[in-house]
Write a structure and sequence with these properties.
Blueprint (H helix, E strand, L loop, with lengths): L2 H17 L1 H5 L2 H4 L21 H12 L4 H15 L1 H9 L14 H27 L4 H14 L9 H29 L2 H31 L1 H14 L16 H11 L5 H14 L10 H23 L25
Helix pairs in contact: 5-7, 5-8, 5-9, 5-12, 6-7, 7-10, 9-10, 9-11, 9-13, 10-11, 11-14, 13-14
């Protein structure tokens, strides 16, 4: 594609995304929950103003004793990913056609970006406080990793292309939902009802956010099926970069890969999940039945339809290795208590 064609494509995408502003504005209040009825982290944590606060904290400590180091590591990685929200909001606000120029614009896209960020902000807050109270985690090491991640940045390789951006968010919100849901399930099996409830709650939010971004991209498929299917294929060819890929700390530059290996080994997020998300998006956007496409779009369509099976086969060949990996996040004394009710 030469420079003139590229500029024409960008202008066309910009116009299409801007034309969707009223579509988004009409749906913001359905896709986000009213703040006055929404949950807040304090509702799921011990209230230190109550007389029995020590007993409630002890309950957190006791239930968390059943969690494996591997599950805690996956949870910490998920929490750190959530805490890097400033990077994601900055990236989203730079997509062509959706920009919130003043920081308090009233148009639909701006309302969505701020509303989505406000809901997402609670996730890191709640998980961070849970981990602090459970007594199993070196919070200084965790906080150091969070600061490194936000400083290192976030590059999903979508440029400022809104089509690529909405394919990415549709994929990533579903991936995050799956990851939190699986942690919730494993927490329940380990006997930690507090963590089960917390992660289930966050997974519910991610499900609504997934629905929103999938809906936005579905509208783009209706308006510009050629551009949409080409963008979908382009991002899949790059492979979806995880939000916390640039995670590091003072000594370890390989933190993300190690966290990912641990999460995969216990079934929190696997290659099978990756394949299932691609399949889900293909079905959600009716990729198989798109008609009247250009030659380039047909090639992209064929590529996408063959992709889930490739990853399912890869998952069959790739058995998660349960390697002994110790990260700085997890305290060595598994059952140590930081409070006593005595």
């Amino acid at each position: 594609m030469n420079q003139t064609q590229q500029l024409h494509k960008q202008a066309n995408q910009f116009e299409i995304v801007q034309s969707m502003d009223s579509f988004v504005q009409d749906r913001v209040h359905d896709l986000l929950k009213p703040i006055h009825t929404n949950w807040q982290p304090s509702s799921f944590l011990p209230d230190l103003a109550e007389e029995n606060w020590k007993e409630k904290i002890q309950n957190f400590l006791d239930l968390a004793k059943g969690l494996s180091d591997e599950l805690l590591t996956a949870l910490v990685g998920n929490m750190i990913t959530e805490e890097a929200l400033p990077s994601y909001q900055t990236w989203l606000n730079n997509l062509a056609g959706v920009k919130d120029y003043s920081g308090a614009d009233s148009h639909g896209w701006a309302q969505w970006i701020r509303g989505w960020s406000a809901e997402e902000n609670r996730h890191g807050d709640l998980l961070n406080k849970y981990l602090y109270l459970c007594g199993r985690v070196d919070m200084h090491a965790v906080e150091t990793t969070i600061q490194y991640l936000i400083r290192n940045g976030f590059d999903p390789q979508t440029e400022n292309d809104p089509y690529l951006g909405f394919v990415y968010t549709s994929f990533q919100e579903r991936a995050t939902k799956i990851s939190h849901r699986n942690v919730a399930s494993l927490a329940a099996k380990a006997g930690d009802e507090n963590l089960h409830a917390i992660c289930g709650l966050i997974a519910g939010d991610e499900a609504r956010h997934e629905k929103a971004y999938t809906l936005f991209m579905k509208k783009i498929f209706e308006i510009d099926p050629n551009g949409a299917v080409i963008a979908f294929a382009k991002l899949m060819k790059k492979r979806v970069a995880m939000p916390a890929k640039l995670m590091s700390d003072n000594k370890n530059k390989n933190l993300f890969n190690q966290y990912s290996l641990i999460a995969q080994s216990i079934g929190v997020y696997t290659i099978t999940d990756y394949a299932s998300i691609i399949q889900h998006l293909i079905e959600s956007w009716n990729v198989k039945h798109l008609k009247g496409l250009s030659v380039a779009a047909i090639e992209s369509q064929d590529y996408l339809l063959s992709l889930p099976d490739r990853y399912y086969k890869l998952a069959e060949r790739t058995k998660p290795q349960k390697e002994k990996i110790e990260l700085s996040w997890i305290l060595k004394h598994k059952h140590s208590r930081i409070y006593s009710t005595q």
